[in-house]
Amino acid sequence: MKDIGLWNEGDWVAAIGAVALFAVLAIGGVIASRRSEEVVGHPRGLFVLFYAEMWERFSYYGMRALLILYLTKHWLFDDGKANLIYGAYTSLVYITPVLGGYLADRYLGQRKAVVFGGILLAFGHALMAVEGNGGQGDATINVFWLALAFIIVGSGFLKANISVIVGQLYKLTDERRDGAYSIFYMGINSGAALGTILVGYLGETIGWGYGFGLAGIGMVLGLIIFVIGKPSLRGQGEPPVPLARNREMVLYGVGVAAVVALWLLIQFQAVVGSLLLVAALALLGYMLFEAFRMPKEPRERIFAIIFLLAFQPVFWGLFEQAGGSLSLFTDRFVDRGGVPTSLFQSINPIFIVTFAPLLAWLWRVLGRKGIEPSAPAKFGYGLVLVGLGFVSLVLGDTAAGETAKVGAFYIFLIYWLHTLGELCLSPVGLSAMNRLAPRHLASFIMGAWFFATAGGNFVAGLIGQATGGEGGEMTRERTVEVYGTIGWWVMGIGLLVILVAPLVKRWMHLDTLADRDVTDDLLGQEEAGLEAQEAGLHPAVKPQ
């Protein structure tokens, strides 16, 4: 144990993170000890889901914070290849929920899918702790690929389904629904921040296995909480029809087979990119085919959806540099003051918790005045902000000069701008998909949203690979050049989106959404009524 007098900034950050974790656990203990069916006005089951998801995010984001460093420092991949592996892995994490959600909706039910996903994730994180001797010639690297495969498939079964159970605890008309998701959202970001700090600290200062091992322990704790808390879920998340034992085993077998398939696929990143491209073209073709079979208004709503989906890969391609090239840049070219590199990735979830309520308040204020930006305009602002983040980092590099390292202030600045951009785009896009999608395409459209996010993660890997140049090794000059180029281009794209936003808003036909709910059930406006308000349209001025 290091003498407290010798602690540096990283040690203090980790200590504060540990205290915060214990405080969160103490609050959970108080909640668990209460016998009432409700806690602070919400079902006990919400807090079971809160803590289960918190630990799952703790493990996932903790592991993610270390991954690019682990690839370059332990397995000795060059920077370009490591970024491509990172992009392929994170893109697959966002694709598999489509399969997991489908199997849960049709057969398993959400609760069993979450348990199965949690078990796969626990195996995956445990295997990540198997280090071997390092280097690509070490046969243990096959265990590493298998660990990634378990985590990818486990996330597919758990990621979307646990969020669905939150909604099932409340009636559609229950005014507590928004508050419930806000509480759940806090669990997600608390786990992300604490996992990044503690797992990252142990992994970088003591050993990779210790960091990944802590991530695995977190996942097991989340799974235990979820299983023990089953009674508080009030029977929600069960199979839609009674499920025969043999069929249930077959479904689990499908999950295990998917692990084997992903173990092979993750090793061939170019194949992942080709599959994403083919699937994207197929999705676009099908959406256009459906659109041209519809009347004018629902057809134009599909056009608006396609417009918003098209900018998902652009945004996330830049945003997800956080876990890839930006992490390597921070490690090598930033004056970190003794703070381990991975801990900087905790800035984003901390900023989300801090600024999400403020931005929500701002939208409400602007909405009351009738000047809240539309959903397409918010997308444009998100793109401008994510581009501006990289431009600001380039300015920070210029200010530092060639010999000095970039100040840590500029890392905080880029994360702040990117967080604001995320808050302008991500929740707004989810709301838009839900309200604009025709009923018979509702699940498909939501799947397309996550698919576009997956595409963005793969694009992130390609951008990160570009920072390595032809030789594969990142240089400060090359990285700053790439960041400056993509930053200015995406800012320009964002401004263009803002300019055309009024046209896209007209395609959304917000003024007839209420009429459509009543008169055109086939086109699915029952889902549109589930949200309290459309992004960019305050309830006080909602057309009736």
TrEMBL record:
Chief location category: membrane
Stretches assigned to the Major facilitator superfamily (MFS) profile domain: 21-505
CDD domains in UniProt: MFS_DtpA_like (cd17346)
Gene3D superfamilies documented for this protein: MFS general substrate transporter like domains (1.20.1250.20)
Domain of life: Bacteria
Record's subcellular location: Cell membrane
Membrane topology: Multi-pass membrane protein
Chain segments annotated as transmembrane: 12-33, 54-72, 84-104, 113-130, 142-162, 183-202, 208-228, 249-266, 272-289, 301-319, 347-367, 379-396, 408-430, 442-466, 486-504
Pfam families named among the record's database cross-references: PTR2
Alphabetical list of PROSITE patterns matching this protein: MFS, PTR2_1
Entries under InterPro entries matching the protein: Dipep/tripep_permease, MFS_dom, MFS_trans_sf, MFS_Transporters, POT_fam, PTR2_symporter_CS
Keywords: Cell membrane, Membrane, Peptide transport, Protein transport, Transmembrane, Transmembrane helix, Transport
Entry protein name: Peptide MFS transporter
Organism: Novosphingobium album
